């Protein structure tokens, strides 16, 4: 009797542990991130560059927002899907002083941002003056001033994050691609670009350390994508036919991106040692983007390198006339770089950026931790590696 009871008990425990997902067996509660603070470039810009240098025009935003929404995309970016999945509103651009609400975070990213300051203007080089160090100054200022403003009460209190949100927030990063193209656009060789990557990453580490020093604890860091699969790079920097891979991507630029990513991963490992209370997740977005492009046909994206919004050439891309570009014909403005019929069947939006459909695909692959080190899902990113 006793033995049959205990075997029933054992069996019950066995069955119930089988039917539970592993995360529940470990009994860790999902994290509660009350805010997101994002640092980056156009891959996660939700209106920063638009606020400072003029709005991104139509047809940007057409697939989701119905009109331009400060994003270089037909709709949502990966950072928007991240905010949605954490139950937070889309995060407002810090530089956007009209109609913004920073209760649940702020976005310091601007299109064209690099980690290192570029010593050129936007109009000279196309790179944003809001490099990562500037984004970090903005964050520092926001941390202090948001609390001063909150104390005014009334509507101001409803527009700013609470003090404690800063230590509980998720700090997200997606930056580095423009540091690589910056060298190539100055006619540097691959070896010359590689040679400055350590300096770029040392400046990246400094910013993460600064944020930690101000109380940030949870970091979600995207690596850089296969920049050699983007028309704005391979149409501008000459390469040999033998350097084009089987999917049409330019190998030298992708190899530099992979080199950057290996070094970034080492930098993250160093940061884990230097910042003992930080939970830092490194996310291999490169692999997701490359597999999306290389399996494009199977996944419903028959021409993954060809832009949806553009004009001319093999890739529907022209270096001088970008997405939404117009010319004057007999006094009338004529759209010569319109969007395609079905953006959802394209990976590439405008030669530089991914479409909403691609961003959603990327988000869905990374959200469960399959591409993360440690393999932490997004909603568990407050737990430290090995804890
Ligand atoms: C910008 O100029 C400073 C000072 O001359 C230099 O240290 C830095 O490396 C330059 N940045 C780049 C990206 O070349
Ligand atoms: C700002 O957003 C928060 C959270 O969504 C909301 O509670 C608050 O009312 C908003 N403030 C204004 C002025 O709309
Ligand atoms: C790079 O090389 C091209 C072709 O030789 C030249 O037209 C361009 O001016 C050079 N750019 C820079 C920044 O030196």
UniProtKB/TrEMBL annotation:
Classification via Pfam families: Lipase_GDSL
Glycoprotein recorded as keyword: yes
Keywords associated with the record: Glycoprotein, Hydrolase, Signal
MF terms (GO), sorted A to Z: hydrolase activity, acting on ester bonds
Statement: the UniProt record of this protein carries the keyword Transmembrane helix: no
Signal peptide: 1-27
Family recorded in the similarity comment: Belongs to the 'GDSL' lipolytic enzyme family.
Protein's recorded name: Lipase, GDSL
Organism expressing this protein natively: Corchorus olitorius
């Amino acid at each position: 009797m006793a033995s049959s009871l205990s075997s029933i008990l054992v069996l019950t425990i066995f069955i119930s542990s089988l039917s539970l997902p592993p995360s529940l067996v470990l009994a860790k509660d999902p994290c509660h991130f009350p805010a997101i603070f994002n640092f980056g470039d156009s891959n996660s810009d939700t209106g920063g560059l638009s606020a400072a240098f003029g709005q991104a025009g139509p047809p940007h935003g057409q697939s989701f927002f119905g009109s331009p929404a400060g994003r270089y995309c037909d709709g949502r970016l990966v950072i928007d899907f991240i905010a949605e999945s954490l139950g937070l509103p889309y995060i407002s651009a810090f530089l956007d002083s009209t109609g913004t609400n920073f209760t649940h975070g702020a976005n310091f990213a601007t299109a064209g941002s690099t980690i290192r300051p570029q010593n050129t203007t936007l109009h000279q080089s196309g790179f944003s003056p809001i490099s990562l160090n500037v984004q970090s100054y903005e964050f520092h200022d926001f941390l202090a001033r948001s609390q001063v403003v909150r104390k005014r009460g009334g509507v101001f209190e409803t527009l700013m994050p609470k003090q404690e949100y800063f230590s509980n927030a998720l700090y997200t990063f997606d930056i580095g691609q423009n540091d690589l193209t910056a060298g190539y656009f100055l006619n540097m060789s691959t070896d010359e670009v590689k040679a400055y990557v350590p300096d770029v990453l040392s400046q990246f580490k400094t910013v993460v350390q600064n944020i930690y020093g101000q109380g940030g604890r949870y970091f979600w860091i995207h690596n850089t994508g296969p920049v050699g699969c983007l028309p704005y790079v391979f149409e501008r920097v000459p390469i040999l036919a033998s350097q084009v891979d089987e999917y049409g991507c330019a190998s030298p630029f992708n190899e530099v991106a992979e080199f950057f990513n290996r070094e970034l991963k080492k930098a993250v490992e160093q940061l884990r040692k230097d910042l003992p209370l930080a939970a830092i997740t490194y996310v291999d977005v490169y692999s997701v983007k490359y597999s999306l492009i290389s399996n494009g046909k199977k996944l419903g994206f028959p021409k993954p390198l060809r832009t949806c919004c553009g004009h001319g050439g093999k890739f529907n891309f022209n270096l001088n006339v970008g997405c939404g570009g117009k010319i004057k014909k007999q006094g009338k403005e004529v759209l010569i770089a319109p969007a395609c019929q079905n953006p959802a069947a394209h990976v590439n939006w405008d030669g530089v950026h991914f479409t909403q459909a691609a961003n959603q695909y990327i988000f869905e692959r990374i959200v469960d931790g399959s591409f993360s080190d440690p393999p932490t899902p997004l909603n568990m990113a407050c737990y430290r590696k090995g804890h």
